[in-house]
Structure formats: structure tokens, C-alpha cells
Amino acid sequence: MGMRLTVDQFRQTALFLLDKVVETGCVDKALAAEIRAATLADDPEQVAIEAQRGRIEQLKKQCGKQGDCADCKQLLTVADYLVRKSVWAVGGDGWAYDIGYGGLDHVLASGKKVNVLVLDTEVYSNTGGQMSKSTPRAAVAKFAAAGKQAPKKDLGLLAMVYGSIYVAKVAMGANASQAVKAFAEAEAYTGPSLIIAYSHCINHGFNLTTGYEEQKKAVASGHWPLYRFDPRLKEQGKNPLQLDSKPPTIEFSEYAYNEDRYKSLKQSKPEVAAELMKLANRDAVERYVLMEQLAGLKCGQCQPGAAEPSPETKE
Ligand SMILES: Cc1ncc(C[n+]2csc(CCOP(=O)(O)OP(=O)(O)O)c2C)c(N)n1
Asked: Which atom of ligand 1 lies at the shortest distance from residue 119's CA?
């Protein structure tokens, strides 16, 4: 967030100085006008960025020739901020779902163009595998030695209900092209974005060379539905939520029991594990079905005020 505000402030300063150096005749008026238009267009196209970089090079050359112009000297220090800058915040689930959730929510609600990538390992990995709010039910983690009792928090859904945030859930191993699409769309969106990426981790307790296979199973069980929520689709009268994965084809337990974080409880406390796994199987199906229902809403129901009140609610 701080980075976004800093970049925007430098850009404003550069635009201010650009006017001044045109006034003093140090910089070509037409070049400055082109630079200003491209800076404010906020165009995500790479080609536009390349063209703008070229213009900034010309600007720097013209400013560099004016040895005694203080505004030219100052503009040289901030001229690069006239090229569109992408700001990404990258963090884990412990940060995003738990200890940093208040701050994350603040950034997402700001409306600023900040992209957030959550590498979701479903535990605090760096400090040795403690449970986070992202840890699924039935998984064993530090502080959840007898299996986590509560279901996984749905961070994507919480962000989605703002209606103005680009949200995507991705799993590279299950669908790489969906993940690439999500990154490109998040980058192009002019407001905040949140991408939650399934991230297999040594704390899960399986041979990580098969990580992508495991990601496929997480998606196939419904535990990790792939979707993209793009607020821009509302303007086209479309449902902003697109579900990118198919209904579950395997049980959650078939995926989970490949991993020690679930398997160890089955070995130490089989009854407890069976009970929790029953609930975890249900969590995965319910999670998918909820996303399916939301993605299936007609566009009229997606736009506040657009839907006709039902006869029961009409007075
Ligand atoms: C406010 C705060 N509390 C505690 C820590 C100590 N800390 C450093 S890394 C870490 C684990 C973070 O876990 P997660 O966000 O899931 O990222 P991962 O390690 O899984 O990549 C913690 C608790 C911290 N850096 N900041």
C-alpha cells in the first residue's frame, strides 16, 4: 500500500514538473503531451509501456541538455514514474488469513491498484508449520495436534463480497493457463486484486516431486475450486464470477490421505480422524457447490437493484 502511494506521489510530482519544463521551453510540447496522455491512460498493454519507455528516454535526453534548469534536474530523478508501475504484495496464509488480515482488508478496501498474491500453504511454513485460519479441517498442524476442528476460512469469498475487488483462486499444477489468465487480468484491473495460489509445502508430508499431481487432486476433490471474479464483467451485464474447475470427481479423503498432515491422525487416533474426515469431505463438496451456485446466478441478480423484487417481498 505504502509502495502504491509512493509511486503515485512520484508520478504526480513528475507530471507537475513536466508542465514546468514545457513552460521554460526545455522540453518539446508535443512530447510532453504524449507522455501525459499515456501516463494517465494507465494502459496495461505491454506495447504501450514500451512506447512510453521510449518517450521517457527522449524526455531524459532533452532534460539532460539543460544544465542550469533546476526543474529539469529534479524531473530526471522522477521521470521513470511516468511509466505505469505494477505493485504486488506477496505473502503466506498465516499473514493473509490471520496476523495480517486487518491490514490486507484495509488494502483491498482502499480501491487502490494494488495486486496481492497469497501463497497458501495452509500453515505458517517459515516458523515450522503452525495452524492458520487457512488450515483445513482434519489436518494436523502445530496447535492442532488432534486435527483442526474448524473448517478453512474462505478468504476469496470474503474479498469477493466487496464486489469491487478482482479475486482469483489458482493452482498451477491443476490448470496453468487459468493461473496465467488470472495474473494477466489482475494486472489489467484498475482496482485492487487478490490471487490465492495453492502452494504445496514440505509441512504437508509427501514427496514434493509429485506436488503438481497433488494440486490436481485438491482441485478434483472440490477442496480448491478454481475461479476468477472480475468486477468488470458486471458492466457487460455478466456474472463477475467464472468457475474454472469441474464438479468433484474424487472424495476429499482420497486427496488428503496422500499426505502425512492428514494420515498421521488416522494412525494415532483412527476414530477422531474418521469423524473429522467425514466433516472435511462435506466441507469440500459444500465449498464447490457454493461457488457453483454463485457462478450460476443470472446477471440481473448480480447487479444490486437490478433484480425485480419477488412477489412476497413486494408490498
Ligand atoms: C506481525 C508478525 N508476527 C510474527 C512474525 C513472525 N513470523 C515470521 S514468518 C512467520 C510465518 C508466516 O507464515 P505464512 O504467512 O503462512 O507464510 P509462509 O511461511 O507459509 O510462507 C511468522 C509468524 C512476523 N514476521 N510478523
From this structure: 21
